[in-house]
Amino acid sequence: MFEAFQESQEVAERFQDLHPPLTAQSAVIEANRCLYCFDAPCTGACPTHIDVPRFIKKIASGNLQGSAQTILDANILGASCSRVCPVQVLCEGACVMHHHHQPPIKIGLLQRHAMDTFYENGAVLAKRAAQERPEKIACIGAGPASLACAAELTQRGFSVTVFDRHSLPGGLNTYGVAEYKLPTADSLREIELVRSLGVKFQFGVELTGEAAFAELEKRYDAIFLGVGLGAMHWLGIPGEDHPAVVDALALIAGYKTAGNLQVGRRVVVVGAGNTAIDAANAAKRLGAEDVHILYRRSQKHISAFDFEYEHAKQEGVQFLWQAQPIAIHHDQENNLRSIECLRVELAQDATPRPIPGSNFHLECDMVVPAIGQSPLFDLLAQCHGVEVKHGRVVVDRATGRTANPKYFAGGDCVNGGREVVDAVADGKRAGIAIAAALEVVHV
Fold first, then answer.
1. Are 145 and 116 part of one and the same domain?
2. pTM for the full predicted model
């Protein structure tokens, strides 16, 4: 089904693996470096609490199927997380090898090795439920949080349908994560595993109006909101309606799923988060000669991880600090020519203060805003009784339950935009809580 998607050869060539996989021999050697800690800090640092020593020990003993099963018991999206997780600040960051002044165990690559082998060998995962239950659950959005919730509930015997407005499932895993981290085809083969458990999908479904949600409430015993975030924020400056102004997620989705491989010769990305880095790196790999990241604060204030920043510099991306964009200019033929900026100084609290008369123009023929996504206020307002505060759905963190006991939520619409593994953890917790709630109701 989903694995029918084929990425173009050109995309594959331009976006080769950021971190090449381990060979079978190197995986065993690396696995044997592990101390298999009893009270493993790496497991505690993983939001889904994968039993890291256990899956690594199984690799060392040659039991790759058992290793993959250990990973999947905790995280149904263990393959994508092995590629996109910031392991340097999670499991590998907590590795005890740091205390021995040795490099941390390559947990992410070992996890990928186990999961790649699992998929290469047919990706068969047995269903846990002894019998089917009559209750039905709807998951809104087909991103990591909903997929984890759906898989957990299906494994417990419940009937789950996932609704999404896109033509492909996966959310940002499919549409928004850089190809050199997670190829679209790999995202979809992982979702095929979720579907094989019995999860049903409905695509192209745009839920609008309170009546649509009222109908869902009648048809389903519980509803999980894994809707993520909305459109990228715009810059709010003159000239940004030009066709050559393309937001970062649209740029990434364009080359990943629509075959749009064209970028400008000189590209300016505005923002300094991980998505901005991904977009800038993509522009370089798609052939841009000159790529700048423009940020109104200094390097120490960026939200991107340090290793992402270092990677961008290796790709040839240039950074321009303490510059505030104020207008985008084009010529008489409507060709984009430059982005006009003001130099800024930073107050003690890092608030940028424009320096009068410091205007300058940075020549470019493409501008990519990457300054975050807006909350889905309109959509969430249609969910009766669901509380939203500061653009985020308010939930009980232990269960994902909202103010309306029929609704649960997780992922970016709750946490404001964190890592894939955080969304998976949210979805799994909510799935367990939904199952517990329905089992009490129907005793």
1. no
2. 0.94
